[in-house]
Amino acid sequence: MVDMTHDDLVGALRAIDGLIDVSQDPPNFHFRSEPFLHFHEGDEGTYADVRLGSGGFEPIPASTAEERLSLLATVADQVERIEGPRKSDRGRHRRRGR
Q1: How does pLDDT run across 15-25, given as a tens digit for each residue?
Q2: Residue 1 placed within a domain
């Protein structure tokens, strides 16, 4: 098991293409110019509100190394799901124009 601190998580989130940290303390990420992820401290520890799908924000625990790794994987998968079709669509349009 990899030990991931909160700072490690924030650094890894900042490295994901398309995520922009618009207020570094506390971290507040936008994706495609829309709010996407921000952190809270609650009675039960740290959690991130993440916009998954087309709905509102969903709370995801981020207090332990395991939870932070899971959050990172969830966010990376969501960004890839959204960006994947868009990137391949651009490639198709370029080929048509040739």
Answers
A1: 999 999 999 78
A2: no
Average pLDDT on 42-60 reads 91
E-state strands within the chain: 19-21, 28-31, 34-42, 45-51, 57-61
Per 3-state DSSP, what percentage of the chain is helix, strand, and coil (rounded to 5)?
A: 45, 30, 30
- Domain containing residue 42: 6-97
Q: Is 49 a member of any domain? A: yes
- Tell me the pTM: 0.81
> What is the spatial distance between Cα 58 and Cα 1, in angstroms, rounded to a whole number?
26
Domain assignment present for residue 11? The answer is yes
